[in-house]
Write a structure and sequence with these properties.
This protein is α/β, with parallel strands linked by helices and 193 residues long. 40% of the residues lie in helices and 21% in strands. It has 7 helices and 9 strands; from the N terminus they run βαβββαββαβαβααβα. The strands form 2 sheets. It has a 5-stranded parallel β-sheet, with helices on both faces. The protein has a 4-stranded mixed β-sheet with strand order 4-3-6-5. A hairpin with a 2-residue loop joins strand 5 and strand 6. Bound molecules: adenosine-5'-diphosphate and guanosine-5'-monophosphate. Guanosine-5'-monophosphate binds next to strand 5 and strand 6. The site of adenosine-5'-diphosphate has 14 residues, from helix 1, helix 5 and helix 7.
Amino acid sequence: MPTGVIFVISAPSGAGKSTLIDRIRPLFPDMLYSISYTTRAPRNGEVNGVHYHFVSEDQFRKMIEVDYFLEWKQVHGNLYGTHAHPIIEAFESGRRMILDIDVEGAKEVFKNIRKAVGIFIRPPDMETLEKRLRLRATESEETIRLRIAHAVEEMRSASIFKHTLVNDDLERAVQELASIIRAESEPGNGTPH
Ligand code: ADP
Ligand code: 5GP
């Protein structure tokens, strides 16, 4: 039976993970994307079922009880979880899939899916990260501070990811991410995280 490639992409909030993923989607039209469940409120422009499945905390807790998630975590005060079934199905049917999850969630996936490929995205430096979060203007001042404090911690875990890339110049970073995905899609390339 063919086995797929599960890419786990993590980054400190504001490093540009969503921007990079949006940019590579047209380059890999057959790639699947895991749509996480979250109790966070939608941002302007976010669509239920496209960017996330937005659910209440009550609904989320019920899903935990019935083992709906491959992994779930509390991140910046909200709950986020990855639906197990589509990941297992993608893996077993030989499809490629991207998971956009936090570092703690990534560790859990690496335990469960030995051949998952980890990609960590770094901002050029902390000042740039803060500037990007402020320019995005989607969070309150308190949440921005929380996300920056968490970023310092997340950067310490970068070494558990097989690949690390710096999102400095967007066009360059898009090309680098695409090269990693192409190289890891070659048969026989599934090495630990
Ligand atoms: P994340 O998904 O990691 O939280 P986003 O993709 O939302 O981050 O990016 C945060 C902000 O930084 C957005 O406003 C985005 O337009 C901007 N951004 C992303 N990548 C770059 C880049 N290479 N150069 C400058 N700005 C960027
Ligand atoms: P945001 O609120 O900016 O969309 O996401 C905040 C953080 O939650 C990001 O690090 C993002 O990768 C992470 N995240 C999104 N979905 C999941 C998920 O299903 N599981 C885990 N563990 N983290 C997630």
